Amino acid sequence: MDHTVSALIPCYEMAHCVARAVRSVLDQEGDAVEVVVVDDGSKADPREALAQFGDRVRLVRQDNAGAAAARNRAAAEARGEWLAFLDADDRWVPQKTRLTLAALERRPAARFAYGQALGIGEHGARKVLGTPRPGLAMEGDVLLSVLRTGNMIPMTTGVVHRDAFFAVGGLDESLRSGEDYDLWIRLAERFEAAYVPEPLCIYRMHAGGDVMGDLDRWVRSCDRIHERLLERHPADGEIADAVALTHAAIRLSRGQDRLLLGDR
Questions:
Q1: Average pLDDT of 86-97?
Q2: What angle do CA 18, 24, 27 make, to 5 degrees?
């Protein structure tokens, strides 16, 4: 392998901010990190924004196919042993890869790792993501933890061994919401996880857009993800109970959001 870690950055109409994301990767402490940016059919060409980095960044262009397809394409192009994810409008903290690789070294059987993300809203509001509910496993076998929290792993903190990523088939490109949740479930079914209990990235929380449409897509995707999981584990009562809990929690959250938006 040419690099230990490859940063995979999907970019769709994010030419105005992708350079900041790339800079946060190139400024990592420790070993150099390969950067692969996949432009997913943007009208705004990111080449000018990335020109300042020269051959330190590889840019791949494709017709628009969605974030999952862009990440899969980046993974196929990457040369690193570990695949790390970053959205074009977010950024890593400088110690992200160093802390993650240290966590993986402490747990040699782990084939993926994650940590916390600091979400920052448009008006300075802050929220820490990536913290399992009390009493749930943070490392090792985390399948029930992922299910019972409805996805506790922020995508931009995730690092996956390339062999494990391709062993589970990568991201499901047929899902247009929840594809990260689906990936962590399929990884957790087969592999152990390592955890870093501190923020590894800065995540931008955007307001506006089709809020209820996004929520509806998320609910439909979760239903499909859970149905397929139950088909794979038809006799596992713990998984069935975790899915039932998350099914109810998702709908409770959806109803609360509708009330907040004035839709009774």
A1: 96
A2: 140
Place of tokens 């792993």: 153
pLDDT digits (tens, 9 = 90+) for 233-254: 999 999 999 999 998 988 887 7
Give 3's pLDDT tier (boundaries 50, 70, 90): low
Contact 146, 171 (CB under 8 A): no
Joined together, the tokens standing for residue 201 give 């990235």
Q: 111 burial class (0-12, 13-18, 19+ CB within 10 angstroms)?
A: buried
What's the angle, vertex CA 33, arms to CA 31 and CA 36, rounded to 5?
170
pTM: 0.92
Query: How many angstroms separate the CA atoms of 120 and 103, rounded?
Result: 25
Cα–Cα distances in Å, from 223 out to 75, 127, 151?
Answer: 27, 26, 13
Q: Which residue type sits at 173?
A: E
* For residues 92-111, average pLDDT: 97
In degrees and rounded to multiples of 5, residue 48 shows phi and psi of -65, -40
Contacts of 248 (CB under 8 A, 6+ apart): none
d(CA 262, CA 256): 10
Task: Report yes or no: 239 and 144 within 8 Å, Cβ to Cβ.
Answer: yes
List alpha helices for 78-210, DSSP H.
96-106, 143-149, 162-167, 179-190
